[in-house]
Amino acid sequence: MKLTSGLSRTIMRYHSSRSRPSCLSNFFCRIYGVSKTHDTLILRSIESKFKRRSNTSLATSFEGPVVDETNLRSLRSKHVFENTLVSKSGPVSRYNALVASGMVREDSFQRSIINILQDMQDRLLNYDPPFVSDVRDEVNDESTIFGKLSKLFSASIKNSSINSPKGLYLYGDVGSGKTMLMDLFYDTLPQKRKRRVHFHAFMLDVHARIHHLKRANYETYDPIPPIASDLAKNAIILCFDEFQVTDIADAMILRRLFDELFKRGVVVITTSNRHPDDLYKNGIQRKSFIPCIELIKQRCQIQSLDSGTDYRKLQKETSGAYFYPLNSQTSQSINTIFKMLTKNRQVTKRKLEFLGRHLMVPESCDDIAKFTFQELCCQPLSAADYLELVKYYNTILLTDIPQMNLVLKNEARRFITLIDALYDNKATLICSAETSIHQLFTVESSTHSALLNPQSSTHHHTLFDDVEIDLERKEQNKNSPIFTGEEEVFAFERAISRLIEMQGKEWMSKVILKARSGGNSSVARPTVEYMG
Ligand SMILES: Nc1ncnc2c1ncn2[C@@H]1O[C@H](COP(=O)(O)OP(=O)(O)OP(=O)(O)O)[C@@H](O)[C@H]1O
């Protein structure tokens, strides 16, 4: 069994201490290698983070974006930019300063991309985007006078977008620095009308807007143009992290949405693990998605970043919060950590309610929650649920993770989505698993498959209705190659890379900085029901 002795020793020390806050400081000092002489404010902020009670009084109904994307920002960039004396003039000077400070290793592949991003930023300085109308002017039901006017208006937008600069589609290997480079670009952009968002969160926002508009308007109402206008009004430069298309609903929405966004002069910068030609590969009705690929290739410069280096795997020190294999000792270790983190405070069962959905949290205390893999990855949950979860919980304990394979691809896909949500929010993951991180995903079938029961997502059924996708046809196509797991195998690599980084000592320093900057406190909390 691989049980990190440093962690267990720290837990023992924690238990033998009477003073919880100072002991907690020691706990983090030891596990995450934070120097004891390190800024005491940081340690105080960790303590207050763990003492903080969750705010449960704010109930929200959907009026706009589902996710506050400021919480999805890369903390590395915050960490790096706020703590290094650097010139604020552009991505190249930022990159130079990071290399000079030793925080980033000089990388010739990254260097060529940062030069491209610098040119792009220079071009954007002179960009005068077209005027975008108000959402309410875009009721495009052609049976109404507004609809007819809207059609005329769309034609005029089309002409005005001709001079918009090309964006960038940056694709390549896992962990090669795509997000870091995009963040350097984004953070140095002087424009205010910009938005940086994880692609999952962006699509959830779009789904929610579609549903909201469809419910409030006519049957024949086309929600895409007004949504595009609203998005363009708020951000003329849109930066997406991890562009990926794995489902038909997203494919059909994107085809139209991108067309409308580009017509409104929006410039898209995105990272992805896939070349545009490989997006939604083997997907149902893929032919209908090809125009979207062509549009991306037309409106974005396509660049690869294939340095062959996964920087996440270069880190040497780990925090030891990943326990394997599954046995009584590992299970006891997880329970001990949970008790330690929640000591003297009430552990409750909770029900999170949002957008007409609910998510059960079996054991929780402040911003710490504990689940089994079965509870979190074998239920019909989606990115929306996991992003909601990380609004509340900054530390997740996840037990009994099985080795995953293509038979368990629904569970694997959910687990990967969960890891993405935790990673993007700089959350802490403490877990117990059947195998080491490197062996967590396999293409072999597993004996566990019979134990787990995949179900379909009700969220997607609603969405298919909203975008008028024929579900019967989807069912007929369930043997389509997209269900062979090719996408999952690809995503496994990214998840492994991220899990490794999340087990590293450097990860905790990011968590500390997040706590220091107030964590998720800016996010409106949805309804929570205490179950006792
Ligand atoms: N040149 C570098 N020197 C040191 N660390 C780096 C360098 N480039 C990237 N990193 C670090 O490696 C990690 C992975 O980088 P990043 O998230 O940007 O990769 P990515 O290509 O976007 O990965 P993915 O495809 O999985 O999303 C981050 O913690 C980042 O700060």
Alpha plus pi helix count: 20
Derived from helix and strand composition plus strand pairing, the structural class reads: alpha/beta
User: How many domains?
Assistant: 2
Summarize the main sheet. 7 strands, mixed
For the secondary structure, the number of strands is 12
| Parts with pLDDT < 50 across at least 5 consecutive residues | 1-87, 155-161, 445-464, 466-484, 518-532
First-residue to last-residue Cα separation: 35 Å
Percent helix: 40-55%
Please state the CA-atom Rg, rounded to the nearest Å: 23 Å
Q: What is the global morphology?
A: globular
The distinct ligands, each listed once, are: adenosine-5'-triphosphate
Question: Which strand order does the major sheet show?
Answer: 6-11-10-9-8-7-12
Bin the strand percentage.
5-15%
Mean pLDDT across the residues is 74
Could you explain the architecture of this structure?
This protein is α/β, with parallel strands linked by helices and 532 residues long. It is 46% helix and 13% strand. The strands form 2 sheets. Strands 6-11-10-9-8-7-12 form a 7-stranded mixed beta sheet, sandwiched between helices. Strands 2-3-4-1-5 form a 5-stranded parallel beta sheet. Strand 3, helix 11 (248-263) and strand 4 (267-272) form a beta-alpha-beta unit. Helix 11 runs parallel beside helix 12. Bound molecules: adenosine-5'-triphosphate (ATP). Adenosine-5'-triphosphate (ATP) binds at residues 76, 104-105, 107, 110, 174-180, 242, 271, 273, 311-312, 494, 497, 501. One of its GO terms (cellular component) is mitochondrion.
